[in-house]
Structures are given as structure tokens and as C-alpha cells.
Amino acid sequence: MEKRNTNILIIGAGPSGMVAAGYLQKHGIDCLVIEKNEFPRFTIGESLLPKSMENFKEAGLLSALQKEGFQKKFGARFIKERKIGEFDFAQKFDKGWDWTWQAPRADFDMALAEENIRKGVKILFNTEVKKVEFESKRSRTEVLQKNGTKLQITANFIIDASGNGRVLANQLGLNATPKVTGNSSIFTHIKETGRPRGKEGELITFEVINTKTWFWYIPFSNGNTSLGFVGNNNWFSQFSNDNTKAFKTMLKKLDYYNGRFEDYPFLFEPVKLPNIAKGVKRLFGEGYVLTGNSAQFLDPIFSSGVAFATESGLKAAKLALKQLQGENVDWQIDYADYMENGTRVFSSYVKEWYTGNLQKLFFYDSPKQEIKEQICAVLAGYVWDRKNPFVKNHRRIIKNVAKMIDQENLKI
Ligand SMILES: Cc1cc2nc3c(=O)[nH]c(=O)nc-3n(C[C@H](O)[C@H](O)[C@H](O)COP(=O)(O)OP(=O)(O)OC[C@H]3O[C@@H](n4cnc5c(N)ncnc54)[C@H](O)[C@@H]3O)c2cc1C
After folding, report:
1. Mean pLDDT over each residue of the chain, to the nearest integer
2. Ligand 1 proximity of 300 Cβ (cutoff 6 Å)
3. Which end of the chain is more exposed for a tag (fewer CB within 10 A), N or C?
């Protein structure tokens, strides 16, 4: 078996792995990325949050992405029974970025990988991590290439950014019940030739079907549009097992978008994913760290997946670099606690979305601008700023404001 050695082994070339690799390459650290698939490859997670722009910039990947002409995303619209809750990232509590992109991930992830390769990052595509063994802090990883070749890679440190591959979580028995459970999703793309011009054909929109079920509309700059439904597993069980039939029946349940997509053939058979949330018991151990979806995933309602994937990828790379330079790193405080703080805020928002409390705030007739801006900062991914009351008091504040709306004694 051929043997290789690297300082840092990164599993997975999604946004988490690519931001980690970009940062390490920029700081002259030898790293090797192992990616199971050939790129470009389809994956879901097409609407980003402004916070992730900071991470792409720090990893040296932003200017390459800017050349791609992806659809810019300046905010998001939520619709329920014709009521509209719209958020503009320019009007938020935190300064930060006020725009980002919505993009087909095959092209987006390809652009990230190509930029890293151009700068000298080594990525082995079509290569799957099969087994990892740790000996003290060093690791020995067995990988299998599509052509049948086996390699053994020794590394000082592993960043596991394998997404739903969940390489180390599966191997080390780290899987745990996620913070949000019981949701499934189904999605596809169409070529929307009759797309309306302007905002109506550009703005990402979430249509609420009922408190626990919603639909996404994500138009891309290449003329394709992503459509998807998310709801609890029970809601899905009423539809056909044939995903195309099921998706067509679901489209008929839409109100605002009723009839708009029915004439378009699906570009691929709708993909159904059950139990989309993921969790782990531990985010790091001797010689490794879990980043992005290989660590955890909550729910797509606020498009937080890539923001967390890049935030954790960048944080992990920074700490790994420090460690390599001989500095002491407290992975619990500097990584796990930091990531958990952000995840907790989002999980409150996700939970309160599905209880209906957050929906009361979003669709309230006369919202108070100050509150809207504080919520908007969270929706833009700025979930670590404890100066924002909607971050600091995330556990109670949504419930409390919803209660006041119920009592109709607050103009929020
Ligand atoms: C229905 C749904 C909708 C979503 N919508 C959004 C959204 O709108 N916005 C958003 O930000 N997020 C969204 N997400 C979440 C988003 O998909 C993820 O958070 C994001 O892709 C995570 O990035 P990552 O880099 O961690 O993993 P990935 O992008 O999944 O990359 C992991 C890579 O690892 C590779 N890999 C896996 N196993 C191995 C192995 N054994 N060896 C080598 N390589 C391996 C895979 O091939 C893959 O390329 C959604 C998720 C779901 C389920």
C-alpha cells in the first residue's frame, strides 16, 4: 500500500473543508484533502448567510467566488396565508456583511475547490476515507480510490469535514440525538424559463404551509430554481413513495406559489431525505476535530448550515495552526464552547419557529423596527454578538414577545 504523510488531513471538500484548507494553505501549512466524489457534485444547502462571507474572505476564497456571478441574496422573505415577513440584511443590529449568495452548490463548491487547487492545495477526488486509527496524537488513515488503489496517510491532525459522511462520528461512536428532531425534506430543481423579472424572480422565499411545514423557493442566476419542502416525518408519510408524484402533489398545497411551477419538468427526480438533523456527543478529541455537518446540523429553515460549516472550518484551522506552532490550545473553550454558543442560539430560533412563536413575530402586522433589526442580525448569522438582546436572551425572548403579541399589548 502506498504511504503518504501530511501535517493536516482534511476529510471532505465541501465549504467546511475548503475554508479550512484555504486558511491553512495561506499560512504555509501542508495539508491534504480527501474527497469521496468527483467534482462538480450535487449537494443541497444553496442559500448562504452574510456571516459566511467573512469566513470565505479570511480563507482567501472570496474574490474567486465573486467572479462566478452567483445570484446575490440581500435578505429573505417569509409568507404565510398571504402575510409577508421580509428581512433586509442592510437593516440589522450588527454591521457586518449585508449580502451573500444563493447558488447551485455543484458550481459553488467547484469554485471553492478550484481556487484552492490553483493556490496549491492538494485534493484527492474520488477517494474515500475508510478507516482512521489514532496512535497518541498522530493518525493513520486508510483511503480507497475509485480505481481500486489503497493509500495509507499519516497525519499530525485531522479536520473531519465529511458532512453527512460523518466519518469520525460513525467510527468513534460519537453520534448523538440532535437538538431538533423528526424533520424530513424533499427537493429538486427546475429551469424556470418564465421567471418573473426583478425581486419576485430573485428573492429567496419561504412559504409556510402549516406551522410545522414549509416550502423554499431559491432562484439561481443560471436560470434554474431550487424548490423544496421541509416538514415533520408524519406529514411526509401521507404522500406517494414515488418522489416525483409526491412532489407534484405537494406543489398543489402551495397558496402564494400555487400553479407557478406545475408546467416545468424536474431537472432530476426529487430527492427525499428523512431525519435531516444530526448531532454528536463531542466536537473534538486527541488529534482530531469535527467541523460542519460532520459535527451537527439543525434544520434548513434559516439557511444556517454553510455559515456554521465555514465558521467551524475556519475556527478549527486557526486552532490547528496555533497547536502546530507549539501554542497551547483549549479545544473545549476555544472551539466546542464557541460553536455550541452559536448553535444554541440558532436551535432556539428553529424550535420557536416550529412552535409557531417565531412565526407570530415574523408575521405581526406592525413590527417594531428595533426588534426586527435584532432578529435580522440572527438571520444573517451574527449569533455570537451578545450585545444583541435577541442573541443574549435567545431562550426566552421569542416566547415572551409572542406572548405579548397574543395579548395584543405590544406594538413590536
Ligand atoms: C434539506 C436541506 C436543505 C438545506 N439548505 C441549506 C441552505 O439553504 N443553506 C445552508 O447554509 N445550508 C443548508 N443545508 C445544510 C447544508 O447542506 C450543510 O450544512 C452544508 O453543506 C455543510 O457543509 P460541509 O462542508 O460540512 O459538508 P458537505 O458540503 O456535505 O461536504 C462534505 C464532503 O465530504 C465528502 N465525504 C463524505 N464522506 C467522505 C469520506 N468517507 N471520505 C472522503 N470524503 C467524504 C462528501 O463527498 C462531501 O463532498 C441544508 C440541508 C438540508 C438537509
Report:
1. 96
2. yes
3. N
Same domain, 229 and 215: yes
**Å from CA of 165 to ligand 1 middle:** 9
For ligand 1, whether the C-beta of 336 sits within 6 Å is no
Grid coordinates 428532531 are at which residue?
Answer: 181
178 CB within 6 A, ligand 1: no
Quote the pLDDT of residue 179: 82
Q: Read off the CATH number of the domain in which 131 is found.
A: 3.50.50.60
Does ligand 1 lie within 6 Å of residue 276's CB atom? yes
**Atom 6 of ligand 1: nearest residue by CA position:** 45
Return the SS3 of 195: coil
Q: Which domain holds residue 66?
A: 2-75+93-177+277-341
Average pLDDT over residues 345-363: 97
pLDDT digits (tens, 9 = 90+) for 231-257: 999 999 999 999 999 999 999 999 999
Q: Where are the alpha helices (DSSP H) in 142-222?
A: 167-171
How remote is the CA of residue 37 from the centroid of ligand 1, in Å? 12
Residue at which a domain ends, from 253, 273, 293: 273
Tens digit of pLDDT for each residue in 281-333? 999 999 999 999 999 999 999 999 999 999 999 999 999 999 999 999 999 99
Let me know whether 243 and 288 are in one domain: no
What is the rounded CA–CA span in Å between residue 36 and residue 257?
37
| Residue 409 confidence (pLDDT) | 55
* Residue 411 pLDDT greater than 70, yes or no: no
Task: Specify the pLDDT at position 136.
Answer: 80
Cell of 212: 410545522
Confidence of residue 181 (pLDDT cuts 50, 70, 90): confident
Q: What is the CATH number of the domain that holds 210?
A: 3.30.9.100
User: Which distant-in-sequence residues (6+ apart) come within 8 Å of 132 by Cβ?
Assistant: 139, 140, 141, 142, 158, 167, 168, 171, 288
What is the 331 CA–ligand 1 centroid distance (Å)? 23
Q: Which residue among 19, 33, 44, 151 has the greatest number of ligand 1 atoms within 8 angstroms of its CB, and so is best to mutate?
A: 44
Residue 106 sits in the same domain as residue 36: yes
